[in-house]
Amino acid sequence: MDLDRRQFLVRLGAGTLAAGAFAMLPAAAFAADEKVDLQKLLEPGPLGDMALGDPKAPHTVVEYASLTCSHCKHFHDTTFKPFKEKYVDTGKVRFILRDFPLDPLATAGFMLAHAAPNNNFFPMVDLLFTQQEKWAFVDDPVSALLDLSKQVGFTQETFELALKNQALLDGVNAVKDRGAKEFGVDATPTFFIDGVKKPGALSLEDLDALLS
Description:
The chain has helices spanning about 5-15, 40, 70-90, 105-115, 120-130, 130-135, 140-150, 155-165, 165-185, 205-210, and strands at about 50, 60-65, 95-100, 190-195, 195-200. Helix 4 packs antiparallel against helix 5 and helix 4 (about 105-115) packs across helix 9 (about 165-185). The protein is built from 10 helices and 5 strands.
């Protein structure tokens, strides 16, 4: 369900609890291992794509993630760094991270990542996954998010402006809605390896096999 800015702020201010477990949403249009139209998948959304690696790399990995998802954190903590070093930094893979927030708190995290000063999207995402337990599962998540956001250059004013930005909220929701409706994303994390859908927190060994 999409929220307008007022509904979003009310729910965020009420300290909406994060979804910490593997979350299932309405029925998928594409089953695991089914291949979607890669050219269509790679069309960026209204906020542009947040990508790492050579745009001409022979392989593309797209991840739909939620910043409050414990399985997404597990992938980030255990697999992402060695995967990036082995495949992204060597020009073999272009990696794209797409917003798929499962709750208003995760939506706020993505809005802050997109609005992070000096294009610090990925450092902000890294910080939010690394410190997930310190903001996603606490009694006052807004204050916790503000404290973390200051580490990437936000002030209280720019923090509040980001979270009140209706266009940013609409953009995050649009990326999520398109992922669900056009590509059958129904859980996080969900990966597309050269267009082939692979739900779940993949290991480096899984990725080795899929990219071989």
